């Protein structure tokens, strides 16, 4: 691994984060209403009080001014102030982020752990009973929106008396079920794709078969598209996680984010957005490093 | 180059029949395609047999059946009295470059067929030298080689997979067609040298008649899954019997005159 490659990728990630933050600022500013929108209707708050609050929250500054101030707050680690909680965003964000990260990492690990053997097995016995079963099950799961899936799992868990508040098993189950169909199908098609390659046919003609064919030929070649998919699966899990957490009452970023959007708590919206973006970029970077470790051709080119 | 007619054939192909079922995706209807309809062939050790024919005649299917990659529906392939093993019959594919694993080094590519035979790795450098690849190429990735080098490596790998101690058959399934002319000429010289050195028998699948005429001791014309004509190249080309072969020759000549 060349150090320069890593540094280049990290710089690239930093630029990407800057771009995302700028875009989020502009989009949020364009959205109608602000945090004090509802307070205006409160007869107990006079216009002077409102103006004072505006001044205090820095809401009457221009967008560039706000952005620069926010960048300053990023530098000192506070990520701005939440209007609703009157606290630095960071103190609200980190405990929640840890909870979300627990959920996504566990689901990421579990879903790949299940998807890899299942997809390979399905491809190896193409059109057999397992393959047909897997295809039918994944089709059904793919068609189910995360929202419905979460409600279904919740319903079953409550009915069977499995539900305990604060238990990670439920959201992880939903996330794994949501991520699994796409992963299994990709693993399966990657393996099938590779096994049709001329060089695999040539290997077979040389008498290479069994474990050697699988572990030295088929799986390394099939790993390439899957390494890229790994990064994307992180993104998918995070966005599903925000929704699933809210439905199942998991105290992660999801409920906080939703609440912040509803209240137009400007910096508390930006915080989770930036954090999810950072997770996503980290996931993609991890996928690329995986690819780098797996494919000798890339090592030669970079 | 007159065939020793009294010698017992080394490789025999008897009444080979092979058909494929093709299922059309939408209607799910299956359609049977008869690729081989009873092919008989003999080949002597150390000789070259060219199989020519238009595309769709069943040439590649015949090659794959002889190499043991596809099981025939009926009929048999016999080598030395029994079904040939992978270490006795090897095939070089249509695009030799694509038949190499791009993530292997030259050394690894050669080691794969050698290791599963339990042979020593010292054989690798030997094989490289045999096909005229430099020793320094051993550590390069196969995807970094030029087209000509890939063709040489594919040949070296086929040789590595073959057993040194017994007479073997090497099938070239249009393997030279994708190469440019100078590389093609180099490969032909290499193949001729190797035949003398190791006593290899070649089955040359070709649509290029001039190549077949140049290299083969015998030419067999395959048409619609049957051998319609056989003989020494000079006889066949002077006095073709089968109308289909006459057409093939006419087409080749016309093309040659254009060039």
The largest beta-sheet of chain B arranges its strands as 5-6-7-3-8-9
Strand tally of chain B, please?
9
> Measured on Cα atoms, how large is the radius of gyration of chain A?
24 Å
Task: Please provide the ordered H/E string of secondary-structure elements of chain A.
Answer: HHHEEHHHHHHHHH
Average per-residue pLDDT of chain B, rounded, comes to 82
Question: Helix fraction of chain A?
Answer: over 70%
User: Biggest interface and which pair forms it?
Assistant: A-B, 20 and 25 residues
Mean pLDDT reading of chain A: 88
Oligomer: heterodimer
Shape of chain A: globular
Low-confidence stretches of chain A: none
Largest sheet of chain A: 2 strands, antiparallel
As residue ranges, the low-confidence spans of chain B are 1-6
**Tally of DSSP helical segments of chain B:** 8
**Beta-strand share of residues of chain A:** under 5%
Distance between the termini of chain B: 29 Å
3D architecture notes:
Chain A has about 300 residues and is mainly α. Chain A is built from 12 helices and 2 strands; from the N terminus they run αααββααααααααα. Chain A has helices at about 5-30, 45-55, 65-75, 90-125, 130-145, 145-160, 170-195, 200-205, 210-250, 255-265, 265-295, 295-300, and strands at about 80, 85-90. Chain A has a two-stranded antiparallel ribbon with strand order 1-2. Chain B is of the alpha/beta class and about 260 residues long. Chain B has helices spanning about 60-65, 105-115, 120-130, 145-160, 180-200, 210-215, 235-240, 245-259; strands at about 10-25, 30-45, 50, 75-80, 90, 170-175, 200-205, 220-225, 225-230. In chain B, the strands form 2 sheets. A 6-stranded mixed beta sheet of chain B has the order 5-6-7-3-8-9, sandwiched between helices. A 3-stranded antiparallel beta sheet of chain B has the order 2-1-4, covered by helices on one side. In chain B, a hairpin with a 2-residue loop joins β8 (about 220-225) and β9 (about 225-230). Chain B is globular and about 50 Å long. The two termini of chain B are about 30 Å apart. The chains are: A mainly alpha (about 300), B alpha/beta (about 260). Chains A and B meet through α8, α9 and α12 of A and α2 and α4 of B.
């Amino acid at each position: 691994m060349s150090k320069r490659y890593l540094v280049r990728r990290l710089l690239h990630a930093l630029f990407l984060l800057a771009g995302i933050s700028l875009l989020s600022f502009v989009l949020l500013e364009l959205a109608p209403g602000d945090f004090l929108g509802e307070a205006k209707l409160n007869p107990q708050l006079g216009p002077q009080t409102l103006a004072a609050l505006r001044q205090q929250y820095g809401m009457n500054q221009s967008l560039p001014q706000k952005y620069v101030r926010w960048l300053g707050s990023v530098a000192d680690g506070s990520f701005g102030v939440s209007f609703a909680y009157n606290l630095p965003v960071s103190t609200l964000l980190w405990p929640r982020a840890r909870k979300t990260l627990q959920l996504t990492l566990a689901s990421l690990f579990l879903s790949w752990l299940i998807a890899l053997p299942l997809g390979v097995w399905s491809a190896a016995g193409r059109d057999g009973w397992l393959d047909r079963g897997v295809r039918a099950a994944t089709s059904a799961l793919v068609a189910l929106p995360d929202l419905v899936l979460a409600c279904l799992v919740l319903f079953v868990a409550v009915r069977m008396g499995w539900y305990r508040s604060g238990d990670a098993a439920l959201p992880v189950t939903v996330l794994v079920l949501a991520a699994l169909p796409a992963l299994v199908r990709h693993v399966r098609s990657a393996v099938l794709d590779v096994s049709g390659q001329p060089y695999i046919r040539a290997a077979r003609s040389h008498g290479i078969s069994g474990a050697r064919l699988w572990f030295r030929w088929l799986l390394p070649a099939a790993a390439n598209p899957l390494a890229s998919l790994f990064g994307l699966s992180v993104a998918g899990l995070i966005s599903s996680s925000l929704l699933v957490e809210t439905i199942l009452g998991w105290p992660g970023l999801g409920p906080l984010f939703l609440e912040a959007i509803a209240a137009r708590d400007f910096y508390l919206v930006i915080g989770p957005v930036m954090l999810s973006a950072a997770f996503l970029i980290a996931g993609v970077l991890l996928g690329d490093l995986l690819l780098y470790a797996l494919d000798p051709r890339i090592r030669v080119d970079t | 180059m007159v065939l020793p007619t009294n010698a017992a054939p080394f490789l025999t192909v008897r009444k080979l029949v092979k058909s494929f079922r093709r299922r059309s995706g939408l209607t799910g209807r299956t359609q049977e395609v008869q690729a081989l309809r009873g092919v008989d062939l003999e080949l002597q050790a150390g000789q070259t047999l060219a199989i020519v024919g238009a595309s769709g005649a069943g040439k590649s299917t015949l090659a794959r059946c002889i190499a043991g990659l596809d099981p025939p529906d009926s009929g048999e392939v016999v080598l030395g009295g029994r079904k040939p093993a992978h270490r006795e019959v090897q095939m070089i594919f249509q695009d030799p470059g694509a038949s190499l694993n791009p993530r292997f080094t030259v050394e690894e590519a050669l080691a794969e067929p050698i290791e599963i035979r339990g042979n020593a790795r010292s054989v690798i450098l030997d094989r490289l030298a045999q096909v005229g690849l430099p020793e320094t190429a051993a550590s390069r990735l196969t995807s970094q080689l030029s087209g000509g080098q890939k063709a040489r490596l594919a040949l070296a790998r086929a040789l590595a997979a073959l057993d040194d101690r017994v007479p073997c058959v090497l099938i070239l399934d249009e393997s030279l067609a994708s190469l440019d002319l100078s590389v093609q000429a180099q490969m032909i010289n290499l193949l001729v040298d190797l035949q003398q050195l190791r006593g290899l028998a070649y089955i040359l699948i070709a649509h290029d008649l001039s190549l077949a005429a140049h290299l083969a001791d015998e030419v067999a014309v395959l048409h619609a899954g049957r051998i319609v004509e056989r003989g020494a190249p000079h006889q066949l080309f002077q006095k073709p019997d089968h109308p289909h072969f006459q057409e093939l020759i006419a087409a080749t000549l016309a093309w040659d005159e254009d060039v």
